[in-house]
Amino acid sequence: MENAQLISLSRQIALRNQIDVVASNMANINTTGFKAQRMVFEEVTMPLAEASEFKQSDQRLSYVQDYGTSFNMLQGSVRLTGNELDVAVDGDGWFAIAMPDGSETYTRDGSFKLDNTGKLVTSTGKEVLTDGGPITFTAQDGKITISDDGTISTELGLRGKLKMVSFETPQMAKAIGENLYTYENAIPMRNGKVIQGGLEGSNVNSIIEVAHMIEITRAYETVSTMMQKTDDLRENAISKLGSLRA
After folding, report:
1. pLDDT band, residue 9 (cuts 50/70/90)
2. Among candidate residues 108, 107, 10, the one with its CA nearest the CA of residue 65
3. Which of 106, 164, 231, 239 ranks highest by number of CB atoms within 10 Å?
4. Are residues 191 and 161 in the same domain?
5. 183-221: per-residue pLDDT in tens?
6. Residue 83 shares a structural domain with residue 195
7. Is the pLDDT of residue 75 over 50?
8. How many structural domains is the chain composed of?
């Protein structure tokens, strides 16, 4: 019975973590460029039960363990905004973003703006990179135009080109928060174009996420009921054994 409780507990813990992932997806339905996540599970087996005095060999015990999350990297729908600093990617490209420590991260969130110095930054204030590094505009630049390959031009002429990359194995990307990802050995964008005046929406499907939440909740309740019945069975067994005379 102890083994049954432990197996059920491992499933219950995994379900609670899975609920957190689904809740995060639902909370980011309207987050620009957000990529939905899924929990990844693996089976962990134990060679023998604790009781070893049975004549027949004990069966292998199978536990469940969640060891990470995977990302749905499918492109979200593009919404046109008309804002010249809003840019979306049609294809597999990612915008390169500079972190305060000098490292490079990537995002699909193209809701850019100019800070108080005229530097192009993300919505959270991090520098957007071009092939020549961060870029700063002045009042003399006037209207900013971004072509489908990321080339930036103003009334003063060409100003640079957005640094765009691709991931050979997108599932190896690691989320670090603020809709940013890290990836080792990113390569120049292979298949994609920039859409000025548009933003890529989240690829979270609300109907699917609600269905997952209901399914997980029901599974959690089932496991809880099974654990309670197992616990009641153990108490009854202890009570009856304790009432027997030696």
Report:
1. confident
2. 10
3. 164
4. yes
5. 999 999 989 999 999 999 999 999 999 999 999 999 888
6. yes
7. yes
8. 2
